[in-house]
Amino acid sequence: MLKLDNVSKLFNPGSPDEKIALLGIDLELKAGDFVTIIGSNGAGKSTLMNVISGVMKPDLGEARIEGNSISHLSEFQRARWIGRVFQDPMAGTAPHMTIEENLAMAYKRGQTRGLAFGVNAARRNVFREQLSRLGIGLENRLRAKVGLLSGGERQALSLLMATFTQPQILLLDEHTAALDPARADLITKLTESIVREMKLTTLMVTHNMEQAIRLGNRLIMMDKGSIILDIDETRKQDLTVERLLGEFEAISGQKLADDRMMLG
Ligand SMILES: Nc1ncnc2c1ncn2[C@@H]1O[C@H](COP(=O)(O)OP(=O)(O)OP(=O)(O)O)[C@@H](O)[C@H]1O
Ligand SMILES: [Mg+2]
What we know:
Elements: E1 2-11, E2 19-29, E3 34-39, H1 45-53, E4 60-65, E5 68-69, H2 75-78, E6 82-85, H3 99-107, H4 121-132, H5 151-163, E7 169-173, H6 181-198, E8 201-205, H7 209-214, E9 218-223, E10 226-232, H8 233-237, H9 241-252
Parallel strand pairs: 3-8, 3-9, 6-7, 7-8
Antiparallel strand pairs: 1-2, 1-4, 4-5, 9-10
Helix pairs in contact: 3-5, 5-6
């Protein structure tokens, strides 16, 4: 379904500030895979998501969806197939627009025609129904400005917006990291149920080791732009946080350094 071949990305090449963000990444996801990604700060996790979603072009290599190269497509063009939720609750939604206007925008994502984000009665009912699935009462606040919502509420809305049009791929970049534990837990549960119900192919970066092990059917560890560990479902089942950190140290010769790391 998603295939990356030899994808590399270097920032500030040739300068003292040169950074290898991705180095020859080969990655193939099957439809319905739910892959968790962990790694030190600067390992290249967000860059990987940026390259897949079209925020930036790789220097080398190619990304394909269902065998078709997506390299020539802009971020906007890919948005129809790729849903994304960021770490920052402010990033995924438009604060000055209402909940229903944001949803209407998500509904139109990636379409060039008809940029009026119209909300009619039928559409409003669909929105209400979708929002009620989140279980936090947003269905009664369709005309509230999104800027007034709490971080957790905004992330729940972002998640709904990112998955509204059944994307081929869902990218989650530490999307619970900015939330307090209770809200983070809520968003994690929502993520699990949406991914399961919609059978979404998902890549989720997390700093929470326990979560990386428990969620999904595959775990990838990145370091210095490379994938250094790729653990399948069977091996993942008897993995522990200690064993995972041990593996990282054995391979990289360093301790995993993530300033947001949570062990469980
Ligand atoms: N736009 C950019 N310009 C220059 N360097 C960048 C840019 N984006 C990322 N980098 C560098 O590329 C490397 C990989 O960064 P990236 O954000 O992908 O890491 P990450 O694994 O997401 O880290 P974190 O856990 O801190 O979010 C880092 O060295 C970073 O400083
Ligand atoms: Mg990052």
